[in-house]
Amino acid sequence: MVDHVLIARGAVPVRLPVPARLGRALVLAAVFVCAACGLVYELELVALASYLAGTSSVTEASVVLSVMVFAMGVGSLLAKGLRRRAALGFALTEAALALTGGLSAMALYACFAWLGPSPAAPAAFAFAIGVLTGAEIPLLMTLIQRVRRQDAGGAVADLFAADYVGALAGGLAFPFLLLPCLGQLAGALVTGAVNAVAGGAMVLGLFHRDLTARSRCLLLVANLLVLAVLATAAACAGTFERAARDALYGAGARPAGGTGAQEVALTGGTPGRPLRVFVGGHQIARAGSALPAALTDPAMSAGPHRRVLLLGGGDGLTLHRLLAFPGVASVTVVGPDTGLLRAARTDPDLTALNGHAFADPRVRVRRSDPFDWLRTAEPGARYDVVIADLPAPVLDPDAYCEEFYGLLRRTLPPTARVAVAAGPPGPTLWTIDAGLRAAGLRTLPYRAGPDGFVLAGERPPALPASATAGVRPVTVRSPSGVPPSTLLRPRFGG
Q: InterPro entries from the entry (predicted)?
């Protein structure tokens, strides 16, 4: 990435209310804060775009970052016309950036709730935020040269050092402070407020003599309006979330835990309305669904099933089905500590739906990413049946790659069976089938209604006669030459 820097040759030094060295430090401090805010907006867009669109994070990150970097170049060029009034231009740019970035999370969520998934909305916000961010450096370069003239190389080094260190602070604050403490909506609003205060205070405090009385009044009013809008949005966030949730799931939806991409919501549960479970706006389970039986019964009915490993299945429905089989001595559930897993153990409606499965003494929960857990699993760990009830491949491609199945194979004795949910028969199912075969397992794709699955093992698997009614092999032959998905070459598109 190339940052465009415009050097203010011949800039007239400005009289500051503080010594030049202190003034320069204050400008660099503002650069630090604004850079941190800018990266928070960027990460917020990537995170929201990924889970709202329901596509892979690689796809959405590529689109958002590419558009934003391009827009930064556009912003740098547009800033050339603002250098004559750099102080006013920078303050107005930061006010616009604070408003746009602060409201971006709420606006994207509103678009998703009322208009449906669309890649255009994240791209539009990425472009707007990129243009405003790109205008910062040329204007700041002009301002810092007006504080104290120095060689261009030294000024660029100081500005970029403050900018990049600020980006580091923003990048760490987003996952470790803002998301856990405030969530995505409130986190973006607070970041916008900090951004507006930092930009406005720096210009009005240091460069007020550069501004006319009318310009100072304009900046003060603009920043107060931005803060008022952000404060109003924060006050209405609860009402907004309830309205958006009703638009997404229907009237009567209620949260059951988690935030952002892991927000769990429940609907129904009344006569005529079966209970449905949503995570991040996407339905993952409902009362009366035949999916848990179709996934588990062929593998469980085909042989011994004393020890069972369940990868994923945080809603507890698949676990409930497994525990119903006679002879099950233990079920190890491996999944991250998400809002879904916590809701499945504590929410009254969801625990009633899953039969309080997590309270069964035979269940052991391992809060870990399945891939990481398999890498560090005890060498002697062996399971009669492994059930993979994981997020869709496009959301978690690592859990469907050849390397993942190779690690999984280490936990299988010769008679063990593996069942993987693979979506409707098509390219995704055949790619999963190829990954299992590349790991050395024998496979049998099967279907139940519109949904596809793959049964695998060290020995050629077969569908037992006692399996759930409606389960039958996939009769369409696998296309020749379908390659497996790997860590270095994932084959599940966004």
A: MFS_trans_sf, PABS, SAM-dependent_MTases_sf
